[in-house]
Amino acid sequence: MNVTELIKALAKVEQHVHIVGSVRPETLFCFANQADIEMPFKTVEEVHEFFRFRDFPHFISVYTMVVNCITEESQFERITYEMLEGDARNNVHYVEASFSPADHVFKDLEYNRMLKAINNGIRRAQADFGIKCNIRIDLVRNYGPEIGMEVLNWIEGENDNVVSIDIGGSEHKYPPKPFEQVYSRANEMGLHLVAHAGEAAGPQSVWDAVKYLNVEHIGHGLAAVNDNMLMEYLLKRGITVEMCPTSNIKTGAISSLERHPIRTFLRKGLKVTVNTDDPSMFGTSMNDEYLQLHSKLNFTIPELFSLSLDAVDSSFLPEKLKMSIRETFMKEYHNLEIE
Questions:
Q1: Contact indicator for 238, 262 with CB cutoff of 8 Å
Q2: Chain segment 77-91, per-residue pLDDT in tens
Q3: Cα 284 from Cα 136, distance rounded (Å)
Q4: Domain annotation for the chain: domains and CATH numbers
Q5: Has 199 been annotated as catalytic?
Q6: How much is the pTM?
Q7: Residue 71 phi/psi, 5° resolution?
Q8: Phi and psi for 194 in degrees, rounded to 5?
């Protein structure tokens, strides 16, 4: 095998991927036609062009379009299955997939039926590809803590495969602190705690997430690199940073991959994972993420494999299953005969 083939063959885990951000252009085209929704495209090729990232406002318009085209709860089965099929092609063994139910409940879809459809997709994908997946519920900070509490009510009613909560959305307008009671309740419910922070806002956003929300993982976390005390605090607390390099470049959070701080986090001893975020909308995959780190930041194959192991160890799987997956990863790695 050459280096590219070896990197593609590495076993991987994905912790930070949005289900809606994984919709294939062909699937969106199908949904739009089924619902007879007027769209700014007439062919699948035009949908591919529409998905091509231009700038952040355009990304929001694409994301909004996808949400509007999901008109039936059952459609989440196909979206989830195809997302996991894509990850399986990248030798991803386990996924923690993010779902924002309020976006769709506000458009008259039912939470329970959406969750059932997602789990149908998960079970089909596991049967067909052997890939495992759990669900993270994104409360969406833009809706505020009251809606966050309501979403927790939904989770109490139906929580099959739901392992964690998160808050995505606008960091600048909706800081973490008002969600303190929401996260406290989620913790009492036995859910793991994650927050997007330090992507579009500064280090204070990360501080607030770890101090007020007691998170175990930070999504993105880029801004922490500008605060040595914060980096030390993340290390001391054992908080994992879920990094999404391609996403960070596309959204303008980082000007180029060469300037991405992932190596600084690793040198400090922090546990870091690498993820796609919204793969269809950012034109990336787990293989692409690893290959870019190799070509632009000179990550070696052993360093990339270490990222995979960190993702296993910091996942929200039961310890026994983590150990089993880790053993599988080690066997696959040794079979690659890395020089």
A1: no
A2: 999 999 999 999 999
A3: 21
A4: 3-335 (3.20.20.140)
A5: yes
A6: 0.95
A7: -110, -5
A8: -135, 150
| Residue 339 burial class via C-beta count within 10 angstroms: exposed 0-12, middle 13-18, buried 19 and up | exposed
- 84, 133 Cβ separation under 8 angstroms: yes
If DSSP codes are grouped into helix, strand and coil, which group holds residue 106? Answer: coil
What average pLDDT does the chain have? 95
Catalytic residue (one of 199, 216, 242, 289): 199
CA dist., res. 268 & res. 225, Å (int): 10
Backbone φ and ψ of 81, nearest 5°: -60, -45
Check residue 181 and give its pLDDT: 98
**Alpha-helix runs per DSSP H in 1-141:** 3-9, 25-34, 44-51, 56-69, 75-89, 101-105, 111-129
Q: What would the mean pLDDT of 137-160 be, rounded to a whole number?
A: 97
**Cα–Cα distance list, 331 to 172, 185, 257, 290, 337 (Å):** 44, 40, 31, 20, 10
* 6-31 tens-digit pLDDT: 999 999 999 999 999 999 999 999 99
Q: What is the percentage of the chain residues whose pLDDT exceeds 70? A: 99
CB 36 within 8 A of CB 68: no
Reading phi first (left if > 0) and then psi (alpha if -120 to 50, else beta), residue 141 is in: alpha
Buried b or exposed e, range 289-304, using 16+ CB within 10 angstroms: bbbbbbeeeebebeeb
pLDDT band at 339, cuts 50/70/90? low
32-82 pLDDT, tens per residue? 888 888 777 888 888 888 888 787 777 888 888 899 999 999 999 999 999
- 78: amino acid identity, one letter: R
Alpha carbon separation from 189 to 64, 99, 252, 281, 320 (Å, rounded): 31, 18, 36, 33, 22
Cα 166 to Cα 64, 181, 250, 278, 316, distances in angstroms = 20, 14, 22, 15, 13
